[in-house]
Design a protein that fits this description.
Keywords: Hydrolase, Repeat, Transit peptide
Shape: globular
CATH class of the largest domain: Alpha Beta
InterPro entries: HOTDOG_ACOT (IPR033120), HotDog_dom_sf (IPR029069), Thioestr_dom (IPR006683)
Number of strands: 14
CATH architecture of the largest domain: Roll
Number of helices: 8
Order of helices and strands: HEEHHEEEEEHHEEHEEEEHEH
CATH topology of the largest domain: Thiol Ester Dehydrase, Chain A
Organism: Coffea canephora (Robusta coffee)
Protein name: HotDog ACOT-type domain-containing protein
Pfam families: 4HBT
Number of domains: 2
């Protein structure tokens, strides 16, 4: 099987962990001596030699001769996991390694299209640490055709949050702290701390709920057009479509080859599958090949195990049509772990992606439709995502 540079780096890290686990007693204690590490200790760089490696180039090329974004996102998660392990690793070989899992992806922003005819570099490091969580920032760079300046070569940025668990009890475990050294490292820590405060604020507001009068007003405004579709379909706006008419889904059985070092299904694999379904959803909705803009947010709510029956369901949740030259298509993908033998199904992941369409499609008369909720539950999901995007 062919492995990318990131996959190879991840498997090297896995090998060292498995070797250590084999040499550690089953009742070995968890790491108890915490230290402060500078970001430089976890900084890792991976280079994709697209310009000289034909096999590598073909692995990552999509039908439009740009990079397969789902595959790159999968690699980003793998690299973020390797970086988090570097930061949390202990010099004491007699202790049990921590279990590190992806908790969320706050943002993956594409700043310009990524080509597969030019070498690509991913650099990442831990930028912020809480008690048992840590944020990893990754930057994808590629020399621009127009200029060779470093600032113009930044193609994509990503922020991943990992949490540490005790390998035996599964409870949250403290991690090594961080000691920023350079001015840039201190700035990145401040930005990450601000994001952490925003996350806390969101959780607090979610617990408190929304003002009933305000929520009712917004729900009624969103549902007004949907009621016309449901009650008088012949009179509905032809430039709009119901959310329920944009749905796509697929299913799979999770295989051993897709597991991470802890035996659970690798988060990057789930992200790739979700991205590819979201891309197909935006494609069938727009009627033209979409262009990826950003991953808005990903929640890893429950672990997915080998052998699980996993169902991905996607829809266009809403569109942003204020700028006719660059309409935005917001796609939601929800992953369900389904257990037919127990007649149960529960949500394991939620993914939110934003796409637009290529400028030439707009010039040729393509028009993106407004998307309308038909139920209160759909309207609440739309409001929740719109509010999240404003934070």
């Amino acid at each position: 099987m062919y492995h990318s540079p990131v996959t190879n780096a991840l498997w090297e890290a896995r090998s060292s962990i498995f070797e250590r686990l084999n040499n550690v007693a089953a009742d070995a204690p968890s790491p108890n001596e915490l230290i402060a590490k500078p970001p430089s200790k976890s900084r890792t760089s991976i280079v994709y030699k697209f310009s000289t490696d034909y096999i590598l180039r073909e692995q990552y090329r999509n039908p439009w001769n740009e990079i397969r974004m789902g595959k790159l996102v999968e690699d980003l998660d793998a690299l973020a996991g390797t970086i988090s392990f570097k930061h949390c690793s202990s010099a004491d070989s007699t202790t049990m390694p921590l279990l590190l899992v992806t908790a969320s992806v706050d943002k993956i922003v594409l700043r310009r299209p990524i080509r597969v005819d030019t070498d690509l570099t991913i650099v990442g490091a831990v930028t912020w640490v809480g008690r048992s969580s840590l944020e990893i920032q990754l930057e994808v760079t590629q020399s621009a055709q127009e200029t060779s300046s470093q600032s113009d070569s930044l193609a994509l940025t990503a922020n991943f949050t990992f949490v540490a668990r005790d390998s035996r009890t599964g409870k949250s475990a403290p991690v090594n702290q961080i000691s920023p050294e350079t001015e840039r490292e201190k700035l990145l820590w401040e930005e990450a701390e601000e994001r952490n405060q925003i996350r806390k604020k969101k959780r607090g507001e979610k617990r408190q709920g929304i003002d009933n009068d305000e929520e009712t007003k917004r729900l009624n405004e969103l549902l007004a057009e949907g009621r016309v579709f449901c009650d008088m379909p012949a009179l509905a706006d032809r430039d709009s479509i119901l959310i329920r008419d944009t749905y796509l889904q697929n299913s799979l059985i999770c295989q051993p080859q897709q597991r991470n070092i802890h035996g659970r299904i690798f988060g990057g694999f789930l992200m790739r599958r979700a991205f590819e379904l979201a891309f197909a959803t935006a494609y069938s909705f727009a009627g033209a090949a979409p262009r990826f803009v950003e991953v808005d947010h990903v929640d890893f709510l429950k672990p997915v195990d080998v052998g699980n029956f996993l169902r991905f369901k996607s829809c266009v949740l809403y569109t942003e049509l204020e700028n006719p030259d660059k309409p935005m298509i917001n796609v939601e993908v929800v992953a369900h772990v389904t257990r037919p033998e127990f007649r149960s199904s529960e949500v394991s992941n939620k993914f939110y992606f934003t796409f637009t369409v290529r400028p030439d499609a707009i010039k040729n008369g393509l028009k993106i439709r407004n998307v309308v909720p038909a139920t209160e539950e759909e309207a609440k999901r739309v409001i929740e995502r719109m509010d999240a995007e404003k934070m």
